[in-house]
Structure formats: C-alpha cells, structure tokens
Amino acid sequence: KPFNTIRQQVTHVKDRTDKLKKCGVIYHIKCDNCEGDYVGETGRQLDTRLKEHLTRSSSAIFEHCNSKGHKIRPENTKVLTSEDNFWKRKVKEAIEIKTRKPSLNRDEGLELPRVYDSLLTSHDHTQVM
Q: 90-98 long-range contacts, Cβ below 8 Å, gap at least 24?
C-alpha cells in the first residue's frame, strides 16, 4: 500500500489553525527595527500572550519597545514548536533559548542539566526536539 495516496495529497478535511490562535507553543519574536529577539512559551493562545508582552510594563519586550521606540508585529512571530505538556514545553523553551541566545530574554528558562550543554553545541537543535 502506498505511503502517500492521492486522496491524502488532495483533500484537507480541517482548516489550518491560525498560528496566533494556537495553544501550547514555543515562539520566537523578532524586533522590526533591530536584531533584538525573544524566545518564550505559553500554554494559552499565542495572541493572548503577545498582547501581554506589548502592554505589560514588566515584559522585556514592552521595555525594549518603549525605551528604543521600536515595534514588534505579532504576525511576524514564528511558532517554533508545539507542546501540550507543561514540563516538556519548558524544556523545549530552554533548549531554544540556549541554542538561539535571544538578546531580549532576561533568563535562560528552565535550568537544564549540564549534559545538555554538549548535546546542544554538537548537534543541530532541531534534531533534539
């Protein structure tokens, strides 16, 4: 039996969920005006979390935009991966932060065991997830 059938290629029963409506994601935000970037995670809808980043004075993104006069557009946010399990999502976020080294993050997320250090520097991080 063929792995991919014509029917599978042609029919799509469900519409794709808008990325901003997805829950349980690790995301990457880039500043429109500079090289500043941020990696985060949320179990809620991504658009809800992005609104918080843009309106809460405690947010690193809010602080960056206000102090520099820069802008972040939610539609330019990239969903890196999805994960419903809270702890797995935290680990994936920490891996992304460690490999991407985003300039706007204030911390490295969940503290990973040292064994991850050699794994993340010797392999492409997309293979780890």
A: 90/41, 92/26, 92/41, 92/129, 93/26, 93/39, 93/40, 93/41, 95/120, 95/125, 95/128, 95/129, 96/26, 96/28, 96/39, 96/125, 97/39
